[in-house]
Amino acid sequence: MRVMDAQEIMALIPNRYPICYIDYVDVLEPGTRIVATKNVTINEGYFAGHFPGNPVMPGVLIIETLAQAASILILKSPEFLGKTAYLGSVKNARFRQMVRPGDVLKLEVKMVKKRANMGIVTTVASVAGQPACTAELMFVVEERTEKI
């Protein structure tokens, strides 16, 4: 069951094509946990150069996809509604397997800590139940200045 679709996601976070990577949200417990999905397709522009003949999703884009899922979780928390989340740091990022076209990337994010204007989350991106990337992300939350 889908909790949020692409349109609802874009109403919440400022990311747009070609850098809006979350297709839908499967599970959302505001302020606690989110599970989201990214369908990795050969149509992604980065596959043309990363790498020709051996397409692999860049690690930095896996982190960005996790950050987008985390920002949905954070911005759905009651104290952060209507604000914008900015990635502040990435700690302990580990890449455990390659992500390729045709993979379904499941993103699980858990809130570890919240303060007045920041949040810390743990993240796991997995393919077929196997971790592809894990990381701890820190966000700074500020008033929204742009119109979405």
From TrEMBL:
<keyword id="KW-0444">Lipid biosynthesis</keyword>
<dbReference type="InterPro" id="IPR029069">
    <property type="entry name" value="HotDog_dom_sf"/>
</dbReference>
<dbReference type="InterPro" id="IPR010084">
    <property type="entry name" value="FabZ"/>
</dbReference>
<dbReference type="GO" id="GO:0006633">
    <property type="term" value="P:fatty acid biosynthetic process"/>
</dbReference>
<feature type="active site">
    <location>
        <position position="50"/>
    </location>
</feature>
<keyword id="KW-0441">Lipid A biosynthesis</keyword>
<dbReference type="GO" id="GO:0005737">
    <property type="term" value="C:cytoplasm"/>
</dbReference>
<protein>
    <recommendedName>
        <fullName>3-hydroxyacyl-[acyl-carrier-protein] dehydratase FabZ</fullName>
        <ecNumber>4.2.1.59</ecNumber>
    </recommendedName>
</protein>
<dbReference type="GO" id="GO:0019171">
    <property type="term" value="F:(3R)-hydroxyacyl-[acyl-carrier-protein] dehydratase activity"/>
</dbReference>
<comment type="function">
    <text>Involved in unsaturated fatty acids biosynthesis. Catalyzes the dehydration of short chain beta-hydroxyacyl-ACPs and long chain saturated and unsaturated beta-hydroxyacyl-ACPs.</text>
</comment>
<keyword id="KW-0963">Cytoplasm</keyword>
<comment type="similarity">
    <text>Belongs to the thioester dehydratase family. FabZ subfamily.</text>
</comment>
<dbReference type="GO" id="GO:0009245">
    <property type="term" value="P:lipid A biosynthetic process"/>
</dbReference>
<dbReference type="Pfam" id="PF07977">
    <property type="entry name" value="FabA"/>
</dbReference>
<dbReference type="GO" id="GO:0016020">
    <property type="term" value="C:membrane"/>
</dbReference>
<keyword id="KW-0443">Lipid metabolism</keyword>
<keyword id="KW-0456">Lyase</keyword>
<dbReference type="InterPro" id="IPR013114">
    <property type="entry name" value="FabA_FabZ"/>
</dbReference>
